[in-house]
Amino acid sequence: MTTQKLLTALLFLLFFSGNSHAQTYEKKIDSLILSGFGNQNEPGGAFLVSKNGKTMYRKAFGKANLELDVNMTPDHVFQIGSMTKQFTAVAVLILEQQGKLNVNDPLSKYIKDYPSGDKITIHHLLTHTSGIKDFTKMKALSTIAQKEMKPEMMVDFFKNEPVDFAPGEKFEYNNSGYVVLGHIIELVSGQTYEDFIKKNIFEKAGMSHSYYATDRQLIPKRAYGYHQKEHGFVNKTVISFSVPFSSGSLMSTVDDLVKWQQALNQNILLNTSETKKAFQKYKLNSGEEFTYGYGWHLKDINGTPDREHGGSIFGFKSMGVYIPSEDIYVIGLSNCDCHSPTEITRNIAKLTLQSVKK
């Protein structure tokens, strides 16, 4: 066999084996997703896997709108619920980078009448260690769920509730802390939370299909949210987005969330030292370490460290998993709170990690 023919044969084998591997990988992911999103006549979801910023997998399943019989596409816009907290945390760090606040500042510096505000710091709010009452666990929540609430009205709603524990004593996931952070962002920046996120994050990262949620404006390619009842699917419960506010009111797409991750990786939004603050583990007063940074859970997949966060809001669920050592990002978005992408997204990340390490 001539050298030329040998090279051609080798290239063919490499291409064929690479192509075969890609097809097997795709089928395995399809199988994982179809276990929870298999009915194409139900609300569905969108999933994306990227490595080094390049897309390895990108597909949508089910319906974006049941009434109009519209199929889901990867371009559809979803509410992302508590994944919003990542953006709020980075917004706080942007303000720190600008010299406008410090994460060790006491809450009383910004909200003078906040009970025990001299003992609670911005750091406590970011890490869910403040001990303040989570408004989502308050019985009175239904009385304001559909009202237009200003940030200070939201803070007033829960600030006089008895605290659950002293600041720094324990980690307990808390939506109120992130609402307070949104209020501080507005006070310090002189802008609305919506405008600050849009100008300092969405526009800089090129996230042109991400928004502060609204039911009043037209959102191109909006996926509609659903609940599942005994008799079938119903439209999601309507709430005022001013209630979850900076703890859960953003909307995005799978592609925009990859841009978000890339902007963090490339220090487009924050310098290295500020970025590091978001992704390091911290300690309680007792010295015990806990697995949450600023806006991200810091866990691992089979011993490989990852950063992850999910979201749940009426009609929608979301999940994002990032593996820094391999620059793998997996995102799953669902337009029914009956279909959780959490475990599926983690399993896709696990499969992808195994695939790239072969």
User: CATH topology, which one?
Assistant: Beta-lactamase
- Work out the helix count: 9
Give the percentage of residues in beta strands.
15-25%
- Shape annotation: globular
Counted beta strands = 15
User: Considering DSSP H and I runs of 4 or more, what fraction of the residues is helical?
Assistant: 25-40%
Spatial extent as radius of gyration? 22 Å
Order of helices and strands: HEEEEEHHHHHEEEEHHEEEEEEH
Helix/strand-derived category reads: alpha+beta
**CATH second-level architecture:** 3-Layer(aba) Sandwich
Q: Name the average pLDDT.
A: 94
CATH class group: Alpha Beta
Question: Which properties best describe this structure?
Answer:
Beta-lactamase; three-stranded antiparallel beta sheet; Beta-lactam-related; 358 residues; Beta-lactam/transpept-like; six-stranded antiparallel beta sheet; single chain; AmpC-like; 9 helices; 15 strands; Beta-lactamase family protein; alpha+beta
Structural overview:
The structure is a single chain. The protein is α+β, with helices and mostly antiparallel strands and 358 residues long. 35% of the residues lie in helices and 19% in strands. It has one domain: DD-peptidase/beta-lactamase superfamily (Beta-lactamase), CATH 3.40.710.10. It has helices spanning 3-37, 84-97, 122-126, 151-158, 175-189, 193-205, 254-265, 272-278, 342-357; strands at residues 45-51, 54-61, 63-65, 70-71, 78-79, 211-212, 226-229, 232-235, 250-252, 282-283, 289-290, 297-301, 304-313, 316-323, 328-334. It starts with a helix and ends with a helix. The mean pLDDT is 94.
